[in-house]
Write a structure and sequence with these properties.
Strands 1-2-3-4-5-7-6 form a seven-stranded mixed sheet, with helices on both faces. It has about 170 residues and is of the alpha+beta class. A hairpin with a 2-residue loop joins strand 3 and strand 4. It has seven helices and seven strands, in the order βααβββαβαβαααβ. The longest helix has 16 residues. Its EC number is 2.3.1.1. GO terms for molecular function: acyltransferase activity. Pfam families: Acetyltransf_1.
C-alpha cells in the first residue's frame, strides 16, 4: 500500500475505460462483481468517477446510476488491491454521494457481497422494502438489470444469488 502517495478523484474519461476494466476484472474473477462488456463501460462512462494516484495511475472507480427521481444505484465500486485500506473506497463513496445529492437523489441502492464496507458507509439491508405501486409499475418496464435487482425480480436471481440488497437514505 502506498499511503504516502496522494490520490484524487475525478470524472472518468473514455481513455479510463481500459483501466476501469483492469480494476474490475479481478473482482469479476472472484465473483464479487458481475462482468460487463467494454461497450457497457463506454456507454456509462459519464456515470463513473475514478481515483488516480499522483502518477496518474487508476487505483479506484465507482459509478452512480440514476434509477428514479429520488433513487440512484452505486455500481462497479472497485479499488486496486494495493490500495485497500487506504480510504480510496470511502473517498469514492463520498464523491458518489455528493453527486447523488447534486442530482436531487435522496436514496442510494447497491447490490453487494461487501456488506461490511457498505454498512460502514451508512447502508443497511433493504429487506422487503419496496417503492410506491405507481413507481413500481414504471420501474418494472425498465430493461436495466440494476432496476430489476432493486425490485428483486425473479429474472435476475440466478445472477445475484447471495448478494445483499442495501439502501442508504441521504441527508
Amino acid at each position: 500500500m502506498k499511503l504516502e502517495t496522494r490520490y484524487t478523484v475525478r470524472r472518468a474519461r473514455t481513455s479510463d475505460v481500459p483501466g476501469i476494466e483492469a480494476l474490475v476484472e479481478p473482482l469479476v474473477q472472484q465473483r464479487i462483481l458481475l462482468g460487463k462488456d467494454r461497450v457497457v463501460f463506454y456507454e456509462a462512462v459519464q456515470e463513473f468517477r475514478v481515483a488516480v494516484d499522483s502518477s496518474g495511475t487508476l487505483i479506484g472507480c465507482g459509478a452512480l446510476h440514476v434509477m428514479w427521481e429520488d433513487l440512484g444505484e452505486v455500481r462497479t465500486l472497485a479499488v486496486d488491491a494495493e490500495w485497500l485500506g487506504a480510504g480510496v473506497g470511502y473517498t469514492m463513496m463520498q464523491r458518489l454521494e455528493a453527486d447523488a445529492r447534486d442530482l436531487g437523489l435522496s436514496r442510494l441502492f447497491c447490490l453487494t457481497f461487501e456488506v461490511g464496507f457498505f454498512t460502514r458507509n451508512g447502508f443497511s439491508d433493504m429487506g422487503t422494502e419496496t417503492v410506491d405501486p405507481a413507481v413500481y409499475a414504471e420501474l418494472v418496464r425498465s430493461p436495466d438489470e440494476g432496476v430489476a435487482e432493486f425490485l428483486d425480480l425473479a429474472r435476475v436471481k440466478p445472477n445475484t444469488l447471495g448478494n445483499t440488497r442495501m439502501v442508504k437514505r441521504l441527508n
